[in-house]
Amino acid sequence: MSGTKPKLHHLNWNLLHTFLVIVEERSITRAADRLLVRQPTVSAALQRLEETLGGQLIQRDSRRFVLTKRGELLYKECVDIYRSVARIGDRLSEDHDDLTGLVRLLVVTHVVLPPLDRTLTLLNRKHPGVSVRIDVANSQDIVRAVSQKLSPFGFCLLAKPLAGLDCRSLLREEFGILCGRGHPLFGLSDVPLADLRDEPFVALACGQDGALEPMVSVREGAGLGSRVVGSSPNLEEVTRMIAAGLGIGILPLASVAEALEGRSLWNLARPEDLLGADLYFISNPAMQLSAAEEAFLRLFEQRLSATEEEPAAEAAEALLSGRLDNQPSS
To answer: Model pTM?
Structure first.
C-alpha cells in the first residue's frame, strides 16, 4: 500500500483502540477475542485505519507479524492517547472515594516474588476500582518497553542496573543445569561444565537472543547449548522436553522446585558454577504516572521496605529473647 496523505477527519478512537489491542495481542484473532467481536470486524477496522492514514501499518502473513515504521509511530501515539484517556478517568474520580484506572506490569516468566503478590492484594483491597494487566515478556523487551514509555513498570533479569532507568535489585535468581530422570547423567553431583558442553540442549526461546537477557549470559558463560534439539517460549514446555530426555537445559530453580523434589528433574550444576542473575524492578523516571500507577508504586515500595525490615526485626527479637533467657531468675 503506497503512502498517501492521512485523512485525519475520518479518524476515531475506536479504530485506534482496535489497532492498539491488535499490536498488544500480536494477532487479529486474539484481538477479536479480547474485544468480544468477530475477526472480520477487526480486520475491517485495521484496513479502514490503514486507508485513513494512507499506508500499511502491519506486515502480516501466516508466519510473521511486524509493525511498519508508520505502525510503530502510530502505536507509540496510541499508547500516549490511551494513557491520557486513563488520566481523565483518574482526574474525574479524585472527588470520590474509589480510585479507578489500569496498572500494567511486564514480568519475566515465573517470577516468585511475595512482595508483589502482597502489593496486588493490598491494591485490590484499598482500590477495588483499579484493574491490573500483567504481560509476560523477556528481559530485553521489558527494558525496551519501559525505556520507550510504553509500560510504566517491569520486572526483569539484568546483569547490572541500566542508565536512564530506575533499577531496584529485588533478589538473586538462581539457575540450574537440569536433566530428566532417563538422562545418563541423572543423579550425578560432580559433573564438570566441560563434560556438558556437547550435550544436546533444550532452550527457553526468549533466552536465545538479546544481550540483556541474562539466561544468554549464563548459557554462554557455561559454554552450553552448541547443539539445540528443542526450544519453546513456554517454561512448562521446556521443562517437559528436559524431563522427557531430549537434552539438558538451564532454568530458574524456583520455577522447577516441585519437579526437583519429585525427582523428575535433576540439577547437574555444582555450587562453584555460580549460575544466576539478579531480578530488578525497573521504571522510567521520565514517564508521568497515572494516579492508579502511583498508588501501585507507593504500595509496592512500602512492601519492599517492610520485607527489608523484617529480618532485622527478627534478629533483634531473637537477640533480646536470648538475653532474657540468660538472665538469672529472681
So the answer is: 0.57
